[in-house]
Amino acid sequence: MKQTKQLSEPLSGWLAQQPLQPLFLKLLDLCDVAAPYIVDRDQQVIHWSRGAEQLSGLNAEDVTGKPCLQEYVITEGGDHQKQLIKLVQADGHEIELNKMTHVLHDQEGVFAGGLGLLLPASEQSENTTSPKDSRAMPDSGKQGFQGLLSRSPAMQAVFQIIQNAAETEATVLVRGESGSGKELVAKAIHDLSVRRNAPFLAINCAALSSSLLDSELFGHVRGAFTGAIKDHSGLFQRAHGGTLFLDEVAELPLELQAKLLRVIQERNYIPVGGDRSIDVDVRIVAATHRSLREEVKNGRFREDLMYRLRVVPIFIPPLRERREDISLLIWHFIQQHNAANFRKIEKIDPQAMRALLDYAWPGNIRELHNVVEYAFAVGRGTTLRCSELPPEFRESRTALPQAMQNRPLSADEESAAIRQALEQSNGRVTQAARSLGMSRATFWRKRKSYGV
C-alpha cells in the first residue's frame, strides 16, 4: 500500500472529533481560488470547482459525471506531478496553466482516482523553448512552429529536427500518413534555410503519368515529342537555388528514379529530347506515406536512391497519437472560418467535443479541417453541436466486427479487440469494457492474461 503523510498527534485527535464530509466540502470551497478538481479511477469528473470553471471555461454541470478531457487526466503513475498545459477556452482564447496532481487510493491501496490543482502559469513559463533562430518559434504558442500547430512532445522533437536540418544542405525524407502535414514540414525547412529567398516548388509524383512527370521535372526541348512546340523549363530548372518538394516519391517510376539519382549525385540532368546537360543547384525534400525499405524489398524502389533521399528522415506522428493537439487544431480552424463572418462559433457542445476527441482521424489534420468546414456549412448559431458533425461521428461504434459477435473469438482476435477498444476509449477501462459487453473485472482479467 502506498504510504501517506503522517498526521501530527494534535491534528489526528482533532479530526477524530469532526464530521469529515462537511469539513472536506468547506476545504474545497476555500481552495476554489486555486481551482481543484477530482477524477475517479475511470477518469470521470466527480468534482469541478468554481475556480476550475473560471480558469478552464468549462461549466461544472457540463463536465461533472462525464469523462474528463485529455488535459485533465490523472493516471496511476501521476502522483506529485507538475505539468504545464495549454488550454483553448470556449471563446477560442488560449491560456497556460500549471497542473499539479496527487493520486488517491482507497482503503485497500487500489488506485481510486486523483486530485488535480490548476494554477495560472507564470509569465516566465510561457515560452519553454529557446530556439537558436528567433524566426523559428514565434512568441505565441497558438502559432506553433512555422505554421505547424502542436503541443505534443513528439511534435516538439520533430520541430527541433526541422530546425537542425534546415541549417544544413542535407536531403530530407518526410514520412507520414495522408493529411498529416508533410508539405508544411518541407516548407518550414525551406523557410528556415539559407535558400528561403529562392523558389519553393512542389509536385505530387503520383498525380502524373511517367512521361508527363519526366517533362514536368526535367523539362523538354522543342520537338522532343508531338506537341512540344517550344522549350519547356522543368521544375528542377525553375527551382534553381531553392527547394523542390517531391510528394509521394515512392510512386516515382523506376526509369525516373535513375534520373533523379543522377541529379542528386551529379547536380546536372538532360532534358527530355535534349543533348546537353543542365547544371542545377536544388535542395530536395521528399515525402511518402509508404516505407521506402519495403518498396526496395519489393523491387519497386532503388536502394541507392533510398539512401540518397533519407539522409535526414523525419516521421510525423498521426493525429490519433497526439490527441492533445485535437482541440488546439479545432479552434484554430474555427477561428479561420469565424473571420469569414458567415457564422461565428463561440462554443463547442461538450458532447460534440467528446465525439471529436474520441474519433480516430484516419485523414489526420486535413480531415479535421474538412470536419470544421462541414460544421460551418450545415450548422447555424454560435455553438457547434453533434448534429453538425459528419455522419460518421453519429454512427454507433463497436470494438468488435459484426462477424466476430456471432461466434467465439480466438485468443488473438480477443486480444486485438481489447486493444482496439482501449484505443477507441482513449484508455478508459470502463468504457472499453462496456463496448465489448464485458464487466470491468472480466476485462481486467483478460487484459492481464493477454498482456495488453
UniProtKB/TrEMBL annotation:
GO MF annotation, one: ATP binding
Single biological process term from Gene Ontology: regulation of DNA-templated transcription
Assigned keywords, A-Z: ATP-binding, DNA-binding, Nucleotide-binding, Transcription, Transcription regulation
Ranges where the PAS domain occurs: 37-92
Region of interest (Disordered), residue spans: 123-144
Residue span(s) of domain Sigma-54 factor interaction: 148-377
Record Pfam families: AAA_lid_14, HTH_8, Sigma54_activat
Keyword presence, Ligase: no
InterPro entries given in the database record: AAA+_ATPase (IPR003593), AAA_lid_NorR (IPR058031), Homeodomain-like_sf (IPR009057), HTH_Fis (IPR002197), P-loop_NTPase (IPR027417), PAS (IPR000014), PAS-like_dom_sf (IPR035965), Sigma_54_int (IPR002078)
PANTHER family: SIGMA FACTOR (PTHR32071:SF122), TRANSCRIPTIONAL REGULATORY PROTEIN (PTHR32071)
Protein name per UniProt: PAS modulated sigma54 specific transcriptional regulator, Fis family
Organism annotation: Methylobacter tundripaludum (strain ATCC BAA-1195 / DSM 17260 / SV96)
